[in-house]
Design brief:
Blueprint lengths: L1 H15 L5 H22 L2 H10 L5 H21 L3 H20 L6 H6 L1 H15 L6 H9 L8
Helix pairs in contact: 2-4, 2-7, 3-4, 4-5, 5-7
Length: 155
């Protein structure tokens, strides 16, 4: 059993450590790009988006629409840069929860349906980034190395 653990778990873990910087970078670039542009599109089409928010039953649509659009745009930009990543990702988790409840909940007939929504995948990535952080290739890591405490950033 010891040899199996060594060959099947320990060795792949050591080999993959070389690429530990890549998954958080890739995740940030993908969701950052998507939300930068969806936020921008909403901000540039506020009257229609306010109407959509109203139809979805989101409270105070005249306030929440520009607020959520700004969170998506600014959050996407910050994720792209890897700047204040945890602070940017956390509100985006909330935005995805509200999006599911307000716009998709009527379509949920099973766990399979719920987990198939792209909003759930985004929520999972945002949650992971909020907890795990931006990784070594980020402005957060650079700033932390320069100005942060002596503990190394976890990836």
């Amino acid at each position: 059993m010891e040899k199996i653990v060594h060959w099947m778990i320990d060795m792949p873990e050591r080999l993959s450590a070389v690429f530990a910087w890549l998954p958080p970078l890739f995740a940030r670039l993908v969701v950052g790009w998507v939300f930068l542009w969806t936020g921008w599109a909403k901000l540039n089409n506020l009257p229609q988006m306010i109407q959509n928010f109203t139809e979805w039953g989101i409270p105070f649509p005249a306030f929440t629409t520009p607020f959520v659009s700004g969170v998506e745009f600014l959050g996407g930009l910050l994720l792209l840069l890897g700047l204040f990543t945890r602070l940017a990702a956390a509100p985006l988790v909330v935005v995805m929860i509200v999006a599911i409840i307000s716009a998709k909940w009527g379509q949920v007939d099973s766990l399979e349906t719920l987990l198939g929504f792209e909003e759930v995948a985004y929520m999972a990535l945002f949650g992971w980034l909020a907890v795990a952080g931006p990784g070594a290739v980020s402005l957060d890591a650079l700033l932390q190395r320069r100005y942060g405490d002596a503990r190394p950033m976890r990836t």
